[in-house]
TrEMBL record:
<protein>
    <submittedName>
        <fullName>P2-related tail formation protein</fullName>
    </submittedName>
</protein>
<dbReference type="InterPro" id="IPR006521">
    <property type="entry name" value="Tail_protein_I"/>
</dbReference>
<dbReference type="Pfam" id="PF09684">
    <property type="entry name" value="Tail_P2_I"/>
</dbReference>
Length: 218
């Protein structure tokens, strides 16, 4: 029985007012707050509700739902883990990059030389800034369609169209979001290199002279 049931039938206004102010409202709150069940129109609002830091409107709906789920700690892939709590960790950066189709290939972290007293000895990469993590990130880019290529140069009408660098911008944004605020990083997306004789490439037709292989080191 509700408050409206206690009113006489002629009291139409009072009955409507009681029903409007009752707590028993037909709103599926549980469904709306569920990133996997909420209507697609609610996704941007739910992303704002859970303070999603990385979001692009042209993402597929499934990717948007998974980003919200991981931000809310309701992911079925990583249950019980909130993405924001992983910021500043290698795992967190890996998760953020996965949302923009990028992956970490190699990391050189804090290349400081071993210190004895105040004198530094040992080795660090040449021209690498200290206390900065350097990443090699794999991020495939789409080459211009129907372009005849010579080495790395494309000729023809397709060569007039520049490569879309939006994936690189998104990967950099994902890395900025995923790192700790007080840390620094540098990144290279040159994850392919020319084949050399030292690679001992099998002569089975899978590679050719002047071709490329994936880099595994910085």
């Amino acid at each position: 029985m509700t408050a409206a049931d206690l009113l006489p039938d002629p009291a139409a206004f009072e009955r409507a007012l009681a029903e409007a102010t009752a707590d028993d409202l037909p709103v599926p709150i549980d469904q709306i707050l569920d990133p996997y069940e909420t209507p697609s129109a609610f996704l941007p609002f739910l992303a704002a509700h859970w303070s999603v830091d990385l979001w692009f409107d042209d993402w597929a709906e499934a990717r948007k739902r998974e980003m919200i789920a991981q931000s809310a700690g309701r992911s079925t892939i990583h249950p019980g883990e909130r993405l924001a709590e992983l910021k500043g960790t290698r795992e967190g950066l890996k998760r953020f990059l996965a949302f923009v189709d990028a992956e970490i290939v190699r990391v050189v972290s804090h290349p400081c030389r071993f210190v004895v007293g105040r004198s530094g000895v040992g080795w660090r990469p040449i021209a690498h800034p200290p206390l900065t993590a350097h990443y090699l990130v794999k991020l495939p880019l789409q080459q211009p369609a129907h372009a005849f290529e010579i080495n790395r140069a494309a000729i023809g009408r397709a060569s007039l169209r520049s490569v879309d660098l939006e994936p690189i911008r998104r990967a950099k944004l994902a890395m900025t979001v995923g790192k700790a605020p007080e840390t620094l990083y540098s990144v290279t997306f040159a994850w392919r290199r020319h084949i050399t004789l030292s690679d001992s490439i099998p002569l089975d037709g899978s590679h050719h002279i002047g071709g490329f292989v994936d880099r595994t080191r910085l």
